[in-house]
Amino acid sequence: MRVAEAWRVALDALRANRLRSALTMLGVIIGVASVVLLVAIGTGTKQKVEQQVEGLGSNLLLVVPGRIEVGNAPVVSPLTLKDVDAVNRVVGDPDRVAVTVASGATARAGGRSDFTTVQGVLETTPAVFTRSLARGRYLTGADVDTSRRVAVLGDSVARALFPDRDPLGQQVALAGVRFRVIGVFAPLGQSLGVDRDDEVHVPVTAAQRLWGTQRIDGIAVKAPDRERIDELGERIVAELNRRHPDTEFSAVTQQQILGVLGDILGVLTGVLAAIAGISLLVGGVGVSNIMLVSVRERTREIGLRKAVGARPRDIGVQFLLEAVLLTTIGGVTGMALGVGTALLVDALSPIPAAITWWSLALAFGVSAVVGIVFGVVPAQRAGRLDPVVALRTE
Amino acid sequence: MTEPAASGPHGGERAPAIEAVDVSRTYQLDGVSVAALRGVSLTVRPGDYVALVGPSGSGKSTLMHLLGGLDRPTGGRLVIGGRDVNALAPPEMATLRNETIGFVFQAFHLLPRTSAVENVALPLVYRGVSARQRRERAAAMLGRVGLGHRLDHRPNQMSGGEQQRVAIARALVTEPTVLLADEPTGNLDSVTGAAVLELLEQLNEESGVALVMVTHDQEVAARAHRRITMRDGVVVADSARPPGADTDPHSAHDRPPSVDHGRPATLVPAPSAEPRSASGSGPGHPSGGSGGAAGATGRLPREAERPQADPREARDAAVGERAAERPGGTT
């Protein structure tokens, strides 16, 4: 039997039982659609996070006390502004060095309040982290030097405290101490479920005075070029180790963060795809089941075809093609459904979704393979039927 | 071994279409051997017109399946179209059936939802004939059986007689050497059955295809040129009648049993009645929608073509194995 003929026969058989074929396909459709959708969400999340990490600014080097490892307890930072001076000397350019000392605090203004993160920073922060302002100005060196009580609000904080008026020039109380608003950040959006606009920047000196501390939590350095970033990190760590022999320090680059995040999100995507794959497998079992029913139902037809000269292989191929058609039509429909849903999710919800060609190819390939794997047993059974018995079947 | 009778214009001159030598067929049922055929020898020559008769359970159907290459003997030698079936693998058997045998069944066995012309073309599909040629040849064959005007009708739009004609066209479209008909008129009323029988005889006459027909109907059997009677898995009589001599259907051309191994007949269980087969209620059944459909096309069959639902006509599709399952079943 010619291949084109076999396809036509298989298609006719599916058409003859439209509802049953559609329901059988539904299992595959749901399986493939969930694989495509979940992989799209995983990939979209990964892309967005990577984008945001890269958006921190390129060639970024973060220096923190302690070793960066999962499960390590945070170390109380021994760093002070004197250490920052030492780092400045290593780097050779103070404009490339930013610091932070952060703590949660309640911000109040005009009867409204908002719990937010207050960050004590240097005037270099916008240059190092590539931040831009929507309104007003950022902190200056003079603000830092004189511990001036001025604040730059994140977009969310500005909206929460001043929903109906211009925050610039207004007073805001941070942990009970009044600061004057001098600027508002341009919005950044969310990252991994964290609102990145929920923060207030004040001069590091003012923050230290506010909390009665000398410490700073971490130092960020924007390296002049990518090639020397690791070497620069080692030199900074060496200098800090010399100054604080009891504490270990770590320097992490953006690439390392990306790598770690990518690994985590890759595993997450894989787990999601595997869960969806299980439903595809269940769909395949449904196909196998229906094909066995179909073989039994059409036993007389099989007997007749054999009587007029169909070889076992012809019959087997016919039923195998039928199974493969079920799963591939289901696969294509599922792909369309998955892509459509992913685009909707991406457009209408905060969850990002990105369609990748490999996930489509994989879903289609897997559905075809599922058809072959789950069609083989019914096809073999059909091919091996004894024509005498088959013709007598009622 | 039986000396083949001169059973037609070409009888005895050509190589045999089918040759069975001491063929037996034993079924294993739950560890018990049941002999359906116990040493049958016969030769079918091109152009033969043979009626295979005998009571239910006599082994007619089993012999038919063997002659058609649907089954293999467990003993003896069976040569179909010059090929020893015991030496053939299943795919080769399929090709052999396709090339040398045409089947006509009591229950028609047409594919539902498939047009007449496509049903007829089915054997050519497995020959790799192109779609256009298939349609041409199938249409020509349907013309020969008088259905040239119903090419695209489906089985459920046709009467029983028409369906059997489609089945005959399908059996002959490959130009086989042997046409095996298992109770071809069993599901038809007498008028329609007679017409179908005439068609078979005419085709046998014209094309020289050997016609081997299993039948319960003595009148039908009487029209054959040769009559093989079976009982208890052996041939008890093999007569040859010259063509055209249908004056006395029971003429004394009957020979003594050609094969007699002297085994007691009691070894074979009592024949049992086969329950009504799906052929009476299946999609091919003409009494359902055929009238309406035929009426819709303005082609009401002239004769009321109705299948006979006569329980006495219970087919002996029950070969030994079936019979063994219900010993003592009522007939």
Name some characteristics of this structure.
heterodimer; A: 394 residues; alpha+beta; 6-stranded mixed beta barrel; 58% helix; B: 331 residues; alpha/beta; Rossmann fold; 6-stranded mixed beta sheet; 4-stranded antiparallel beta sheet; disordered N terminus
Model description:
The complex is a heterodimer of chains A (394) and B (331). Chain A has 394 residues and is an alpha+beta fold. Chain A folds into two domains: 3-52 and 260-392, no CATH class; 76-247, no CATH class. Chain A has helices spanning 3-16, 18-55, 81-91, 125-129, 141-145, 155-161, 204-211, 229-243, 254-297, 299-307, 312-348, 357-384, 387-392, and strands spanning 60-65, 97-109, 112-121, 133-136, 150-153, 171-174, 177-185, 190-191, 194-195, 199-203, 218-222, 249-253. In chain A, strands 2-3-10-5-7-6 form a six-stranded mixed β-barrel. In chain A, strand 8 (190-191) and strand 9 form a beta hairpin. In chain A, helix 9 (254-297) packs across helix 11. The mean pLDDT of chain A is 88. Chain B has a single domain, classed as 3-Layer(aba) Sandwich (Rossmann fold), CATH 3.40.50.300. In chain B, the strands form two sheets. Chain B has a six-stranded mixed beta sheet with strand order 6-7-8-3-9-10, with helices on both faces. Chain B has a four-stranded antiparallel beta sheet with strand order 2-1-4-5. Chain B is globular. Chain B is an alpha/beta fold and 331 residues long. Chain B has nine helices and ten strands. Chain A binds chain B through residues 1-2, 5, 12, 16, 300-301, 303-314, 386-388, 391-394, and chain B through 65, 68, 70-71, 90-91, 94-95, 97-99, 103, 105, 109, 111, 113-114, 122-123, 125-128, 131, 170, 174, 277-278, 282, 317, 319.
